[in-house]
Structures are given as C-alpha cells and as structure tokens.
Amino acid sequence: MRLESEAINLDSPSHVGCCRQFFGGRDSHRASQAFDPVGGAYRRRFPAGHPAVQGTCLLPFGILEKHGPHLPLGTDLLNVRYASLHAASQEYAVVFPEYYFGQIFEAKHEPGTVAYSMELQLRLLQETTDEMARNGCKKIIIVSGHGGNEHLLPFFAQGQLDKPHDFVVYVLDGERSRPDGPAKKSTGIDSRAIARRQ
Predict the structure, then answer these.
(1) pLDDT tens for residues 36-53?
(2) Full set of structural domains in the chain with CATH
(3) How many helices (H) and strands (E) does the chain have?
(4) Which one, of 167, 150, 65, lies nearest residue 116 by Cα?
(5) Count of alpha carbons within 13 angstroms of residue 71, beta-carbon side
(6) pTM score, two decimals?
(7) Percent helix, strand, coil in the chain (nearest 5)?
(8) Confidence class of residue 18 from pLDDT cuts 50, 70 and 90?
(9) Backbone region of residue 135 per phi and psi (left: phi > 0; alpha: psi in -120 to 50; beta: other values)
(10) Is the pLDDT of residue 100 over 70?
(11) Residue 175 above 90 pLDDT?
(12) DSSP string spanning 2-43?
C-alpha cells in the first residue's frame, strides 16, 4: 500500500510541527503527508532527520492488561501516549506508536492480559530501537507507563553497553522520574545507558 504524499519543505516554519507528533495529534495530517515509505523520498522526508528534532524520538511503552471493570484494556498505553504527546508539544521529538511488548507475568492469569516471553520482549525491543536508529532516531527515550517494566527497561538499557551502537537509549519511568515524584527503590541499576559509538 502506498501512502499519498505531497512534496513539502520540512524546514519551513509551518511544517516544523509535524516533527513533534509524527504519529498522531494536531499535526498528524501534515505528518502523514510528509511520510512516503517508497524510494529516496522517504529518507528526505522522515521527520527524525529534521534539525529541530535532533534525532530525539519517544517510544511510549505500556502494556495490555485489565485495570478493573471501570477502565479500558490498555490504560497504561493510553496514559503514556498522552504524556508523550504532551512532552512533544513542549520539546521537539518524534513520538512513535504505543509499544506494549513488556513485562506482565504477574497478571498473566487475568483476562485481557497479553504476556510475551522474556526472550521475545528483549528481542522485539532491540529490533525496534535498532530500526528507530536506522531511521534517524539517535536519542531514543523509552517512556514507561507501566510499573511492571521498572526492572525490564533498565536491564535493557544497561544491555546496550554490550556492543557498539550509533544511538543512545534512555529510560523515563513515569512518576518516579520526576524530581518531586514518589521515591523510587534503589535497584543499583543506572537506567540511563549510553551506548558506545561505533
């Protein structure tokens, strides 16, 4: 399937906004016009390459689980998506679609929970960040909206030090990342892994 697109100048002030919310929000119509997955036009128009973004991309990371009878399935996804879009309205960044391949073994027995194996979780996340980087995202911020990922994501970030990458992965852990947020238990893991450059 080919997305129809028009040639636009992403350097013009009227189109810089598409870099903020590439996959949704108030500028999604302009962003979809800038996205052409066919041929060389794709690389020229992908917003991660725009100077205002400086290669910064947000990956909203939630989970699919039931939050009681009063909230929708995937509440964490909805909340982290909203928070990521709000952040991108204040600071230029590409916001990727919601990502839900995280850790939820403790609620696997609940209806509506989607729990992937640990091996698959880590492999999918590595492939996703590798592909984000290949497309110009050199500063990848994983924005966690699910408490069950509080050990998985720092472990993944630390694992980036195992071999050279041309990108950096940071983990933002919701409320606990705010200076005035709730206290976080020390895990002894530094969740801001800076990968070595090739």
Answers:
(1) 344 445 455 565 656 788
(2) 54-177 (3.40.50.10310)
(3) 5, 4
(4) 65
(5) 12
(6) 0.69
(7) 40, 10, 50
(8) very low
(9) alpha
(10) yes
(11) no
(12) --------TTSGGGGGGGTTTTSSTTHHHHHHH---SSTHHH
Which single residue is written with the structure tokens 């640990």? 118
Structure tokens at 12: 């013009």
Token match 């928070």: residue?
83
Amino acid at 8: I
What CA–CA distances, in Å, run from 182 to 65, 101, 106, 109, 155?
A: 23, 25, 22, 29, 21
Structure tokens at 66: 């039931």
Alpha carbons 80 and 90: distance in angstroms, whole number = 16
Mean pLDDT of 58-82: 91
Give phi and psi for 77, each to the nearest 5.
-65, -45
Residue 79 parent element (H or E): helix 75-90
Helix or strand holding residue 120 (H, E): helix 118-134
For the chain, how many residues are written? 198
Report for 58-72, 81-95, 120-134, 173-187: range of highest mean pLDDT: 120-134
Can you read off the two tokens belonging to residue 11? 């350097």
> Rounded to an integer, what distance in angstroms lies between the CA atom of residue 114 and that of residue 22?
27
